[in-house]
Amino acid sequence: MTKPRHEVIQEIIEKAGSTFVSVDFIKKDGTERQITFNPKDWNEIKGTGKPCGDPNIFRIREVNNKDEGKTTWRSFDARRAVKVRANGSEVCWDGVEES
Questions:
Q1: CATH topology of domain 5-41+55-87
Q2: Structure pTM?
Q3: Residue of 3, 13, 32 lying closest to 86 (CA atoms)
Q4: pLDDT, tens digit (0-9, with 9 covering 90-100), for 16-29
């Protein structure tokens, strides 16, 4: 039996340390999106302040190289991830995982 996608992604993030992680995922509207973040960037989370109880939702601070390295809070659903890259390694999945 294979590990759930969110567990694989969590392990990759933990092993990455402070090196950048890149995630490609399919948005709800069907378009593909790529985000890059530093797992050690844990500045204050904006919003309600309530932790998310869903282990499939990852909240990160995306690095925006077009905007002089500024970061923006984003989230992605592990069930919609199709590729994760970190430390020269890459893990891919075929399409969106059923909820």
A1: SH3 type barrels. (2.30.30)
A2: 0.84
A3: 13
A4: 999 999 999 999 99
